[in-house]
Amino acid sequence: MSTKKPATPKSELAGTDTLDRSNTNAKLDSLETFRSDATGQALRTNQGVKVADNQNTLKAGARGPSLLEDFIMREKITHFDHERIPERIVHARGTGAHGYFQSYENHSALTKAGFLRDPAKKTPVFVRFSTVQGPRGSGDTVRDVRGFAVKFFTDEGVYDLVGNNMPVFFIQDAIKFPDFVHAVKPEPHNEMPTGGSAHDTFWDFVSLQPESAHMVIWAMSDRAIPKSLRSMQGFGVHTFRMINAEGKSRFVKFHWRPTAGTCSLVWDEAQKLAGKDTDYHRRDLWEAIEMGDYPEWELGVQVIEEENEHAFEFDILDPTKLIPEELVPITPLGKMTLNRNPDNFFAETEQVAFCPGHIVPGIDFSNDPLLQGRLFSYTDTQISRLGGPNFHEIPINRSVIPIHNGQRDAQHRSTIDKGRASYEPNSVDSGWPKETPPAAVDGGFESYYERIDANKIRQRSESFGDHFSQARLFFNSMSDHEKEHIIAAYSFELGKVEREFIRARQVNEILANIDLELARRVAQNLGLPAPKAGTVQLPKTSLDRSPALSQANLLPADIKTRKVAILAADGVDGAAIDAMKKALKAEGAHAKLLGPTSAPVKTADGKSLPVDASMEGLPSVAFDAVFVPGGATSIKALSGNGVALHYLLEAYKHLKAIALHGEAKQLLDVLKLEVDAGLIVGADTKSFKAFFAAIGQHRVWEREPKAKAVPA
Ligand code: HDE
């Protein structure tokens, strides 16, 4: 600090006056310049020449050879030949959306970041959700971590919060990331499996790397098969800093909480969806936004005063640890709403370039060694992925503030800099552009003035040494059904591992140190000898359970945006369909009418009802619940229709709410099913209420042991 330059006189400070602060759609407006609408326009070459014939190459005679001089054909094919860019090394499969963030109040006591100080300001955002392992065209519903990357186009520059849907990570130090990614990616000889971690190299690595134990149990939990992108939490993972106008720094952990609740698929459903609708999550998000069901997340932080940095039983710089909400509750900051789909997948979702190093005044890094490595990696990867250092000029990445600096040239430069000086200091351009000294607000960026006094050393801090306590805390915090799912997931994944010594190592050296019962059950499923208690001495911890970690405690308060399939055949009770549709609409939920084919169905009173799809076209895995209206002829037809019967059995097996109305009750006998809390029979408003309550519970967990016997 002592070497600070003298303050620049106010009159010479670079102004923010070029910025229209009232413009809440700043990003969308800035993209407008680049959006291209071909309606009413002539087809032209890239040089602007109108094309007369886009069907035929120039040839010597109608049946003769093509001519090299055909610049129109050559330009078109050349461009096509170079259409692909390298996909992301990880997180290649993703989907994006535009929206905005709005702060609840002025959080200036916590941070000087402008977008968190002004509750009237809507800051444009672009969000990209992703899976990690699979390539660009892989399935959405695989068991995997989900990326949750948010780009805030703030008045003070671009801020990227590049997080995941799980609050911890597999490794503690960035230097291990290539090892981890090589292990989780498909086997090198046959490039299998696509999109998942159920193979030898992944389990070889994690069974040898105990620091992964906590994250791996998250990946084996229901969190790795989210119901939708709209029902996922997001986490910044690392500890960051927030700095207020007085320069006071506090540590923070970022959390995103969906207002739609946090819930998951069941495993059989996730596997089936991977085949029946590879784009399941992408489609759900797209359709929700198109229908006006704008997904929302609350952004919050856990705040840790600097003096409490060492007050925990773990190190807050260790990215394999979370801070239980029971120890540090979340302070809500504001809400993000996604309200617009991209116009062009490649231009926006594929070319968006996130980097944890993109921060704004009021936010800063911690010394988490994983975060520190990320600060280098992301810009580096964009340079080869997006073809050079000018990727910030690609429309989706452009800051909403005009950029001026001395950086020049390089591939794909699109800015035409007018001044003569690309150096500083200069006098030919009167010294512009100039530095802005740090200030309470609107100042230049200043790194937090942290004192570092240390030896240069390659060493892992001893405070990072406990790899099992929080994995145990996570397992203990699960509801009974969540524990069963974790046991089943380890058993499934390790069952795909060919080398028995890897299976045994994971069970005996990792799982037995987390929880002996977990290890015993998995060993049993794999046919391995019963494991002995783990040998690692765990420190005494003050918390046995963290209820905030269980999705059983994260259900939404309503059934808004839930999807219900209505199964019908000719002779259906039309009034029952109307009543259900009306009741669902009142709850903000959606219904789709499905018939044996895509042809309209006839109601008992002779009306023709168009259907949304056939039952095969929109399978039960695409819905939250199923309603079967009465009508003697319709029920008779459905009772003899294998697709309809399978539909119901599958919904039952996936623990979904089912309502059988009027004559539909007969289906219980046909299917040999019994009424339960989510299988409701009746034709009155009371049964509708019970049906909606069951949908609100997301799944009928009490049915799960019984449903295992159902052959769907
Ligand atoms: Fe990433 N990560 N990562 N990562 N990551 C990338 O950047 C990397 C890590 C995350 O939708 C890459 O643009 C290293 C943690 C998301 O475009 C790459 C390390 C977390 C996305 C990269 C990590 C993440 C990425 C690949 C360890 C959660 C997708 C392409 C030091 C907090 C962003 C790219 C999008 C993408 C490197 C660890 C989240 C290669 C070196 C921890 C959400 O640069």
Would you count the extended β strands for me? 18
Beta percentage is 5-15%
**Name of the CATH class of the largest domain:** Mainly Beta
Q: Specify the structural class.
A: alpha/beta
CATH-derived topology of the largest domain: Catalase HpII,  Chain A, domain 1
Apparent shape: globular
Hetero groups: CIS-heme D hydroxychlorin gamma-spirolactone 17R, 18S
The total number of structural domains is: 4
Q: Radius of gyration, Cα only, in angstroms?
A: 29 Å
Tell me the span between the first and last alpha carbons: 69 Å
User: What does the main sheet amount to?
Assistant: 10 strands, antiparallel
List keywords for this structure.
712 residues, alpha/beta, Catalase HpII,  Chain A, domain 1, Hemocyanin, N-terminal domain, 4 domains, ten-stranded antiparallel beta sheet, six-stranded parallel beta sheet, 19 helices, 18 strands, globular, disordered N terminus, binds CIS-heme D hydroxychlorin gamma-spirolactone 17R, 18S
